[in-house]
Each structure stands twice: as C-alpha cells, then as structure tokens.
Amino acid sequence: MPATPVLFVSDHVAGSVQVLTVPDGAVVGRLTGRHLSEHAGFLALPGGRTACVDDRRGELLVLNPYAGELVERAVPVAVPAEHLACDPSGRRLAVTTGLGRNGAPWSDLLTVVDLATGEAARVRTRVGEPGVTVLGEDEPLVVLRHREPGALAVHRFADLLAAPPGCPPVTPHAILPLPDDGHGDAQVPGSQEVFAATGEGVHRARRRGDALAAEAVVPWGSPARGWYLRLDTRRQALWSTLRGGDPDPLRWPEWSNQAWHHDLRTGRTRLTDLGPGLVFRLALARRHTAFSRIHPDGDELVLLGADGVVRRSPLPAMDGAPRRGGTPWEGVQRRAVAASPGSDWVAVTRGGHGEVHLVDAESGQEAARPRLGTPLHHGGHLALRVPDDGADGDPVGR
C-alpha cells in the first residue's frame, strides 16, 4: 500500500473495520467479526500503526495499514475496554475496564502489555471507569484516574507486569487526590505531566520519582466545563469542548459549546463559540481543529483554523438523529470525526447511513463521500493516519 493517508472506519455494532485511502475512499483493508471498543477508541503508535481493543474477542489489536497483514499483533486483554494508553515509545500499553453494557461499574481489571516482549498481565485495581496514562519510557508509571472518590493512583509498570497469574489485587504505589467528577485525560510525554479534566478545571501533576506532585489547576475560564481532553502535538496545547447549560439530557438542543484551547508554552487560554446542541470529541488536522455539531435545526462540521477563523460546513441530516424531547445518547445516531496532524483532510460520519464525508479543511469542501456497506450505527468510530504524522506524540487512546 502506498504511504498515503488512510482512514480506519469501525462499525462497532455491525462488527467491521475498514481501511480507506484518503481522499479517494478506496477500501484497501477489511476486518469482519471485530467489535471494537468505541469508548477506548484508537491509539496512535509509531510508524503509522494504530492500536484498539476488540470488546467481543477480548483482544488488543495492533493494526498496520502499511504492511502485508493488517493485524500485526493480537494480545488477550480484559474487557469491556474503557480506556487505552501507552508510554511515549509505544511499547508498553495499559487497558482499563469499565461499564460496557451494564448499568453500573462492575469490573476492576487492568491489563498491561509489553509489545516488545509479548508479556501481558492482568491485575485488580478498583471498580469504576478509570482513565489511564503511562508516564515515562524508562521505568514507566501507570497512572489511573479514578472517580468517587477521585484520585490519581500511581503504579509501577514493572510491578504490574510481574504480577502472578490469577488477577491479584494491587495497591497503588502513590495516590494524589482529585475531585470526584474527573473525566478526560492527557499527558505531555517530554515533561511527564499528566492532566485530568474536572468541574474545577484541568488538574495537572508532574512526575517526581515514582509519585506525582500536584501543580496549579488550569481554569476553564467559563461557567461550562470540558468532559474530554486532548493533547495537540502540533503546537503543545490542550483542547477540550466546554458544555454549558441545563445538564438535563432532554435539554440538549440548548446546550452551549465552546472550543477550549490552552497553550502550554504561554499559559494562555482561548475560547471559541461553536453553537448550541451536541458537540463532543474533536480532531486535529494540520492547520485546523474539527468538531461535528448535531442540532435539530441542522448539523454541521465546524473547522477552527490556527488563525482563529471558523468555517462551518452543513452536513446532511441523519435518519434517527437525536430529536427535541429526547436524549442525545439512547437509541439515536451520532457522528464521529477524525483527522491527522500530518494532513489537511477531515473525515466525519453520517451515522445510520454508512457514509463518510471526506472534507478538505483548507477549503471546507467535500471531496468524496464513500459508502461503507454497514450502517455505522451510533456514528461508528474513526482514526486518520499518515506515516510519521506525529499523532503518536499523544499516547492516549481517542
């Protein structure tokens, strides 16, 4: 396969993964019977590879679209996968477990994997929906972000990997308290800083030996808050989407949304209004940040340029989209969005229709709309990779 941009498209309900070249939309790889964890998402690894978790088979998959076989490695892990992260080298990975299709957290299993040696181990930590980061390449630490009670729990990766069989319980080497409402994780590999989004703002901590030292909280600068946190590898910044308004899910068309950008070098924060409705995950292209906005009055792809200019491109309506008087979560279609910091292409799905819009972020124009042959229920999930695009500089699954 030529070293061109490729798009991973997962229909986690139908159980398929397809690989498309961009922008022509040609299918060059396909997996069937693979139900990927939409919540754990895709994790960029060096060399254009991508990791994800098959929730039905209980396997961590390493996918290489530029090799002869798409599946480079499959390693058994505990599921349902909640969050996925690796160390900055892409060698050591951690997978936490969460709700799955259950009404309350029930699993406390954590899996760690060393891709270089093939070793893997499962341990018991704490029931919940923990976020995870893996700090450092030499003697890395696994940091679990827990809720209710909130905490950053620090474990030595080597200790976890050396655990005996039988999924033994483990005790954190160190604990740093957090508010109870943490949701969203990021790390900066060079500085070994870890970030957690809470109602108060973005809590930050830096590695000190085998523990963490708290640093100043970064405020949201708005009455709203972010539920998602992402490292911008292009310009060393953090991104989130701030959601405000009445938290009642039935009031979702009235929710406010702001793009939150915090420059880690200058400490400056910039807020940009995105419009009302449902906006959640975002994607980072070469010179733009992409958001999909769902609203009963019309959906759109919002492209925020590095110069602060906002471009809005209408998207065709989805059958089964969230409606007024209902929630935006249960039994409805949504959209996924993807981009690569090494490309100007942006991809956004049309849930329920099996379509992907491939858009040039520079012009805002749609270049192709491939149909995948599966519905892409709930919007599916996407990842766009270009060899050596630097996306692996963000070692947290998205």
UniProtKB/TrEMBL annotation:
Q: InterPro entries of this UniProt entry? A: Quino_amine_DH_bsu, WD40/YVTN_repeat-like_dom_sf
Q: Where is this region: Disordered?
A: 362-398
Q: Which domain of life is it from?
A: Bacteria
Identify this protein by name.
Uncharacterized protein
Recorded hits in SUPFAM superfamilies, A to Z, give: YVTN repeat-like/Quinoprotein amine dehydrogenase
Q: Taxonomic lineage per UniProt?
A: Bacteria, Bacillati, Actinomycetota, Actinomycetes, Kitasatosporales
